[in-house]
Specification:
With 300 residues, the protein is of the alpha+beta class. 53% of the residues lie in helices and 13% in strands. It is built from 11 helices and 5 strands. It has a 5-stranded antiparallel β-sheet with strand order 1-2-3-4-5. Helix 1 runs antiparallel to helix 4, helix 1 crosses helix 6 and helix 1 packs across helix 8.
Length: 300
């Protein structure tokens, strides 16, 4: 088993570095994601962060090619270990300096730095050191023990997927949705398909496009909430308009009462501004398509 591990390590590392490197170099999202990373905070420039991310991706692709073509040469393995050590140092500094920022390790990852990023960097470091010391090739392991190689590579791929937060939407979110369908929401203790807690709806709302659009009008925290025909209604107070045209309003949001952070797609949210004095609708904005166009009801 040890010989199989050392023999296939170059192939596993090449797959990991080839994937992350290709995403950094070729993805259109590199420039969009760069401002959200700890690297942009360190360099004080989104443009410089984009350049460094793409350069790092190019280096990863070069090392991956070396691991595939000349795995017995210690240079690719040593370069991989050095890259892993650099990742660990960057992650540690980034976590201390900008804990709310993402690492940018695979560009598409927009979650804050977590233990998974550290473990993945440690895998690169330890794997590179192992490859450099073993100076072994991967093709005899594949040709000599194809079944064992297939099992090992499948297991290694599963571990790497589990350590990649940006891939959660392909396996972790479906598992969570399946758990909720089978067991119901743990905070409610009810059957599947029932409403989520109000706090979950508020959290989902405050990360939505609807909230960003209405935020200049909102002037309070959540004042009231109720359910109506499958929608959860969340009411805030606000001021609509400017200058002499400004008027106090109730800002009323409506979203699916069963939607949560694990629902996957962005929720459909409807926003109404209701005059605080007359109760008449001032304006209605819809983000997405909803089955009803009527004015949202006020709490009675």
């Amino acid at each position: 088993m040890l010989s199989l591990t050392t023999g296939l390590a170059p192939l596993v590392l090449a797959g990991l570095l080839g994937w992350t490197g290709a995403v950094k170099v070729f993805s259109r999202g590199t420039a969009q994601q760069a401002p959200k990373t700890a690297l942009a905070r360190m360099l004080r420039s989104s443009e410089r962060a984009t350049v460094v991310l793409r350069a790092t991706g190019a280096g990863e692709l070069l090392i991956a090619a070396g691991l595939l073509v000349i795995p017995a040469n210690p240079v690719p393995g040593a370069a991989t270990a050095l890259l892993g050590a650099g990742f660990l140092a960057y992650l540690g500094y980034g976590l201390a300096m900008a804990p709310e920022s993402s690492c940018g390790c695979s560009v598409r990852e927009d979650t804050p730095i977590t233990w998974r990023a550290f473990v993945r960097a440690a895998v690169v470091l330890i794997g590179g050191a192992t490859v450099a010391a073993a100076q072994d090739t991967w093709w005899p392991a594949v040709s000599g023990r194809p079944a064992g190689a297939l099992v090992f590579l499948t297991g290694a791929a599963a571990v790497l997927v589990a350590l990649s937060a940006d891939l959660d939407r392909w396996w972790l979110l479906p598992l969570r949705r399946a758990r909720l369908r089978v067991f119901g929401h743990p905070l409610l203790g009810t059957a599947a398909g029932n409403q989520v807690p109000v706090a979950a709806s508020v959290e989902l709302l405050e990360s939505s496009l609807a909230w960003q659009a209405a935020a200049p009008v909102v002037r309070s925290a959540l004042l009231a909430h109720w359910e109506d025909d499958g929608w959860r209604i969340l009411q805030y107070s606000g001021v609509y308009g400017d200058g002499e045209n400004a008027r106090p309003v109730a800002v009323v949001f409506a979203l699916d009462a069963t939607a949560g952070r694990d629902s996957g797609a962005d929720p459909v949210v409807r926003v109404s501004y209701v005059d605080a004095d007359s109760g008449e609708a001032v304006a209605v904005e819809e983000l997405g398509s909803v089955p009803s166009r009527r004015v949202l009801p006020m709490a009675g």
